[in-house]
Amino acid sequence: MQATAAQNRKAVAELAVNGGPKVRPDPFPGRHMLGVEEKAAVAALFDAAIASGNAFGYNGAAEEAYCQAFAAFMGGGYADAVNSGSNAVYVALRALELEPFTEVIVSAITDPGGMMPIPLLNCIPVVADAAPGGYNTDPDQIAALISPLTSAIVVAHIGGEPVDIEGIMALAKKHDIPVVEDCAQAHGARLNGRLLGTFGDLAAFSTMFGKHHCTGGQGGVVFTRSEALYRKARQASDRGKPFGLPQGSTNCIASLNMNLNDLAATIGKIQLEKLPGLVERRRALVARLTAGLKELSSIRIPALLPGAEPSYWFWRLEVNEDALTCDKAAFCRALAAEGVPVNPSYRAMPHEYDWYVNRRVFGTSGLPWSAPQYKGDPNREFPCPNAIAATGVQFNLGVHESWGKREVEDALTAFRKVEKAYLKMED
């Protein structure tokens, strides 16, 4: 027992967080997602503009080519490129023509941009807890919130991990409620062989610089297989222009200009060609890491839905605190000190943020919650115990396609080193 205790003290002292040598003294590699291919395509766009004397704009040949390529990637349908993922959610909801002061069910764990469009449309966000043990919601959590006021459901596939979208769609169909899939983090992910984003009535993607494929600094895409919804999305994203309406029609709704542009689309089209290989490399990487982490007592690898093929925007892992002398926060601090890219807490729950708590959407009016037309409870709270429990013990490992053999070995070495320091001694 004394020898084991001494070894444990030595292992703790050797942790980088306590001044010991780091497993990985130099940073993990960047993604290198932009290359000579994008540079050449952008240069050609500039060359054409210089030769013609006309600046490139939006809704041009480049943007049309990107939208067609995106729709083809999704297996057919219609794509409308917009200038952010948040606006993709907004445009998708706007295309549904939701009545003000109705309720839209939305995942608890999501980006603020996945929830804020709801009150901006004068609808009320109703927050669905995560399923037990994870970040994503599920049909049971959503079913508990459906009421006569429910007008739509927005469901996020967090971290590129598929939600039970088949079960949610069956529930939504039963109640005749449209569904928007928030695929901002789930490019190329599949469930039972089918791409996420093809289940719902519409899907919203983010193409900002950190996502699986990008259109430069910012961007987004609205996807649907319904031509009618596509026309409404186009109207919503470009100041109500009468797309699909008879000749002579004028702007048909009040909206804003949320278009992408030909420069961004030029980048996006090249990026889209790289996407399948990128996703496969991430899956292969996670498979190699899984084989190593399965040997550890300190880490649990959460189970996926049957038939799920994530695209791993990040990899969700769980600290087994029962096996350790430290908590998750200390374990993650030690991993980070060894040079491993971890996000120790993904409590991304926008309904806990100031804007929601203080109802700051339209001045200080409290609208849309305070409107007399809203027939629900404006003070309703959504505690979301499952989401809080999951984020309390789980963390995100920042894996990506540019990791190689060395990165895998260094990450596993760091996990083993930290476990050795904090693993409880046997009696």
Keywords:
Aspartate Aminotransferase, domain 2; globular; alpha/beta; seven-stranded mixed sheet; four-stranded antiparallel sheet; 427 residues
Description:
By secondary structure, this protein is of the alpha/beta class. The protein folds into two domains: 133 residues, Aspartate Aminotransferase, domain 1 (Alpha-Beta Complex), CATH 3.90.1150.10; 237 residues, 3-Layer(aba) Sandwich (Aspartate Aminotransferase, domain 2), CATH 3.40.640.10. It is built from 13 helices and 14 strands. The strands form three sheets. Strands 1-9-8-5-4-2-3 form a seven-stranded mixed sheet, sandwiched between helices. A four-stranded antiparallel sheet has the order 10-12-14-13. Strands 7-6-11 form a three-stranded antiparallel sheet, with no helix packed on it. Helix 9 packs across helix 13. The longest helix has 32 residues.
- Count the domains: 2
Radius of gyration: 23 Å
Low-confidence stretches: none
Describe the main β-sheet briefly. 7 strands, mixed
Residue share in helices? 25-40%
Question: How are the SSEs ordered, and which strands pair?
Answer:
Blueprint: H1 2-13, H2 36-52, H3 61-73, E1 78-82, H4 85-95, E2 103-107, H5 117-120, E3 124-128, H6 139-143, E4 150-156, H7 165-175, E5 179-182, E6 190-191, E7 194-195, E8 202-206, E9 220-224, H8 227-237, H9 262-293, E10 299-300, E11 308-309, E12 315-319, H10 328-337, E13 342-343, H11 354-357, H12 385-393, E14 394-397, H13 405-422
Helix pairs in contact: 1-13, 2-9, 3-9, 4-8, 9-13
